[in-house]
Amino acid sequence: MKLFLRLSLMMIAITLFFNVFSVIEAKAQGQVNEILNRMDAHYKVLKTLKADVTRQQYNAQIKETDVSSGQISLAPGKGRDFSLRLDWKKPKEETLSVVNGKYVAYIPNIKRAYTGNSDSKTVNDKGGNVLKIMSMSKEEMKANYNIQYLGQENVAGNIPTFRLKLTPKAATNFKFADLWIDGNGMPIQGKVTRLNDDTDSFMLANLGKNVVINASIFKVNLPKGTEIVKS
Known about the structure:
By secondary structure, the chain is α+β, with helices and mostly antiparallel strands. It contains four helices and twelve strands. The chain has helices at residues 2-45, 121-125, 128-134, 138-144; strands at residues 49-59, 64-76, 82-90, 94-99, 102-107, 112-117, 145-155, 159-168, 174-181, 187-194, 199-209, 227-230.
């Protein structure tokens, strides 16, 4: 009789545990869908974006972080295509422009420019992975990643955000990515953790949404004598 009672209580406890877990999981998934819907709605009304940008690249082997800062200009196009220009100011000047699937990366101090397709390794090395993830649609995210809601966090001191963790469903060159999305559905921070535990993160600040941006700024005018390297 006692054995039967203990087994019955154990079964009740297990049933309650899984019921509670299912409720929590359903609530978390509902939160993920709400955040993704906000991101999609925000992107649809975003015509242009100008912002300050900070990039942090952490080397897990030597435990050092390189920090770059500059400005970003973005104009969404058809679907999820966009025109992008990154002007790094510190610690060195460099410009990256992406238009119609092509990129130009110009390094003025050595008068050299790299050109090629926007999905190339060069663009990924310059943060393309992070920026691409930050601009993905809800359908793209769900198709390519397992998405986990990690709760609310403040970034840049006092900006409340929702944090999502994206784990690739297929083998890729990174373990997972984290996104911090504000209440409007704007991703203001993204971080990729690579297979060797190095990380690459972008943070946007002083956002200017739907401001006037001349389309000509996305074209990088290379000075005469610039060495051009195609990739």
